[in-house]
Amino acid sequence: MYGIPARIAATLLSSALALPASAQQGAGDINANGQLVLAARAGVVPRVAALLAAGAQVNSRDRNGDTPLNMAAARGNIELVDVLLRAGADVQQANLSGVTPLMAAAYAGNAQIVRKLLAAGARTDAVDRVKKDASVYAAGQGCTACLEELLGAGQPVNARHANELTLLMWAAGYGHEAVARLLIARGADRALRDDRGKTAADIARERDFGPLAQLLQP
After folding, report:
1. Out of 61, 120, 139, 161, which residue is the most buried by the measure of CB atoms under 10 Å away?
2. Is 112 strand, coil or helix?
3. What is the mean pLDDT of each run of 10 residues along the chain (218 residues)?
4. Cβ atoms of residues 192 and 156 within 8 Å
5. What residues does each domain of the chain span?
6. β strands within the chain, DSSP E
7. For 53, phi and psi rounded to 5 degrees?
8. What is the pLDDT of residues 36-82, one digit of tens each?
């Protein structure tokens, strides 16, 4: 497939690192916005809430461009997501790699956060630097519940992504049969071909996912 899982993981995990002891000790020398970013990265919800109440900017960013909401979504921290959304966090704000909170939640496989972000107005058509949207992340990770939320929000099941790949092709490439069955039930076209002329069944067959290839046969 065209994705690079290691690169994606590095992008998302960079914002999920635990707060080091040295940073905790020097927190008093950092302004409120910097402290907010550190607290969000560590997932310390009471500290985040206190800093926001004291005037810290909810959309503050770290050197990777991640906001507290992006960090919370990547780590599946539902409580922190709720606090940030109530404080008016920008659900569209992407990091320097173009990853939005919705993409981060889909990659993390957290359908509950995906649902909350969609309810807050997150766009399903935003793409990152490698032209992936949240639905591609969900399909590649095998998160059927995430895809159900995204499709329910209007994401087209047969949308063409980079290299003319469909969501069904992404599911095929990673061997996610449950995702493939969901997409087929929602009207996914098994006859579509990517820019190499390959169908989802072809992709599954190349990856030695024999039973899935049979399911995907046009």
Report:
1. 139
2. helix
3. 39 37 44 96 97 97 97 98 98 98 98 98 96 97 98 96 97 98 98 98 97 96
4. no
5. 1-124
6. none
7. -65, -30
8. 999 999 999 999 999 999 999 999 999 999 999 999 999 999 999 99
Token pair 């539902």 is found at 78
Nearest CA among 99, 174, 189, 100 for reference residue 144 = 174
Fold of 1-124: 1.25.40
- CA-to-CA separations, 122 to 92, 96, 105, 143, 211, in angstroms, rounded: 6, 18, 11, 18, 36
Give SS3 for 193.
coil
Burial class (CB in 10 A: 0-12, 13-18, 19+), 4: exposed
Pull the structure tokens for residue 166. 């469909």
DSSP per-residue letters across 52-106: HHTT--TT---TT---HHHHHHHHT-HHHHHHHHHTT--TT---TT---HHHHHH
